[in-house]
Amino acid sequence: MNREDPVAKNRDTPYRSLTTYRYVLVAAAVFAVGAYFLYLGGEETRFWRNHPGWRTLMEQLGGLLIVTGGISILWELVGKRSFAREVLESTRTANELESAGLKRITNQFYDEALWKDCFKGVEKLDIFVAYGGTWRRTYLSQLQALAKSPKGRIRVYLADPEDPATVATLANRFGSTPERLKERIWETKEEFEALQQEGGASVEVFFWAGDRVFTFYRFDNRAVIALYQHSEGRSPVLPTMLCENGGSLFQFIYDELRSIRAASRPANQGAGTSAVVTQIRKG
């Protein structure tokens, strides 16, 4: 029978209750002993009058037992358990981060140190963006260096300028017009293809039709993921994550890349449209 076992969900309850009762009883006993010592020290007897030092000791010992008992019960039942929960949560968080392969999180998308570190020694670079004009211009020198490497490979997946739904959605998100967005996409295509040089890295540009809820850049066994904002205007303050191969987050990006690659078309199929848009831009 597949029936929920109500006892299994509360297996630790009896032990927790016994522990609580034990500490309460011990603290109550200590408190009672302290109160009794205070009571004895307060008695006006011949013994205490003849031994004032012992009387003071008895009173102080009684007060100490009462205070110690109170503090101990608070620590055992409240402080220690809260501390244990905090340690457990920290350990769980660390394990989850390790499982995801997440190495860094920042809200500064154009963090120079982050990107320069990713470009070091990279051979295979996959870029999934709408057009990425600012990022491309910022790291043009690194892209040119990679393009010179015979072992290098650059693949860029841009928004499809010939898909009306894609262009309309992204133009509205970026606060642009469809015409201006198309120009930027074709401009990006041409500039990436211009990186190609004889004996250097292979440079391929593809168009992918569909909305983008995030953008990513894969550098060999590392990937940078950045989220898009939904508010109007543009801002460099975007949640940006760095992950490495071996974690679930990198695997997610890798699977997404395979799916995007299968659904993309070579950008050079739209060479005629590119020439028209370029002519419009120059005119």
Topology:
Blueprint: H1 13-42, H2 46-50, H3 52-100, E1 102-108, H4 112-119, E2 124-128, H5 133-138, H6 140-147, E3 153-159, H7 164-173, H8 178-193, E4 202-208, E5 214-219, E6 222-227, E7 237-244, H9 248-263, E8 265-266, H10 271-282
Parallel strand pairs: 2-3, 3-4
Antiparallel strand pairs: 1-7, 2-5, 4-8, 5-6, 6-7
Terminal Cα span: 76 Å
SSE ordering: HHHEHEHHEHHEEEEHEH
The figure for the number of domains is: 2
Parts with pLDDT < 50 across at least 5 consecutive residues: 1-12, 271-283
Under CATH, the homologous superfamily of the largest domain reads Endonuclease Chain A
Rg is: 34 Å
State the shape: rod-shaped
Residues in helices, as a percent range? 55-70%
Helix and strand composition category: alpha+beta
The CATH class label of the largest domain is: Alpha Beta
Strand order of the largest sheet: 1-7-6-5-2-3-4-8
How would you summarize this macromolecular structure in one to three sentences?
The chain has helices spanning 13-42, 46-50, 52-100, 112-119, 133-138, 140-147, 164-173, 178-193, 248-263, 271-282; strands spanning 102-108, 124-128, 153-159, 202-208, 214-219, 222-227, 237-244, 265-266. It has 283 residues and is of the alpha+beta class. The protein has two domains: 8-100; 104-282, 2-Layer Sandwich (Endonuclease, Chain A), CATH 3.30.870.
